Amino acid sequence: GGAVELNAYQYPVVGSYEADHVIIKLFDYTCSHCRKMHHELEEVQAAAPGKIAVLMLAVPLNSACNPHVTGSNSTHRDSCQLAALSLAVWEIDSTKFPAYHHWLMSHDRPPEIVAAKSQAVSLVGEQLLEQRLADPTLWQRLAVGPKVYGLAKRGVVPKLLLPKVMITGNATSRDDLFNMLSRHLELPELKP
Question: What's the mean pLDDT in 147-164?
C-alpha cells in the first residue's frame, strides 16, 4: 500500500535484481507454511525465467528480535538465529545466499542451529561469519522485516507484498498463487 519503499539492492533477493518484477516475501525459517511457499515460488520463478525476483525479508516469529510477537512458542525458538545466519551469508557473499536459503527451506523442518551454522561456515568461512553476526548493522538490517510485518498488519506469514496487493501464503494453493501472480503482475503467460 505504499507505506514503505525498499531498495532491493540492500536486501537478499532470489532471482535477478534486474527482473521485471520484484516481490517482497515476509517469512520465517521456522514456519511450515513458509516452507511450502518457498517451493511454490521456485516453481513460479522457473515458469517465468528472469521475470520475477523475490526479495527476502525474514520476519522471525520470536519476541527476542520481533517486537510484534508476544509470548513464546518453542517452534520458533531458533528463528532469530536462522534469519541472522542467512543475512550474514548474504552480506558476506550474496552469490551464496540463494543456495543457503534453499538449503534452510528444503527440509520438512528447519535445521538445528548447529547444522545451519556449519553449513554457513562451509559457504563463507567461520571468521567472516562471526564478524558479521557480531556487527550491530546486521541486526539493524534484520529489524526491517519485523517493521514491514507490523505495517502489513502482522498475523500469519508468509506474506507476499506486490505493488497493489498482499497475498497471504497459507490461504492459497499452488494454482491460486500462480493465478494471483499472473493477474497482479500482468503476466498472462505465467502458468503452473
Answer: 91
What average pLDDT does range 55-77 have in this prediction? 92
| Per-residue cell: 95 | 552469490
pLDDT score of 1: 58
* Residue type at 23 in one-letter notation: I
Whole-number Å distance between alpha carbons of 128 and 90: 12
Q: Which amino acid is at 104?
A: L
Residue 172, amino acid: T
Distance in angstroms between the alpha carbons of the first and the last residue of the chain: 27
Angle, CA 155 vertex, CA 150 and CA 158 arms, to 5°: 95
0.90 cut: is pTM over it?
yes
Helical spans, DSSP H, in the chain: 32-47, 79-92, 97-105, 113-124, 126-134, 136-142, 144-151, 174-184
In this structure, are residues 24 and 148 in contact, taking their beta carbons and an 8 Å threshold? yes
Nearest to 41 by CA among 28, 24, 29, 58: 24
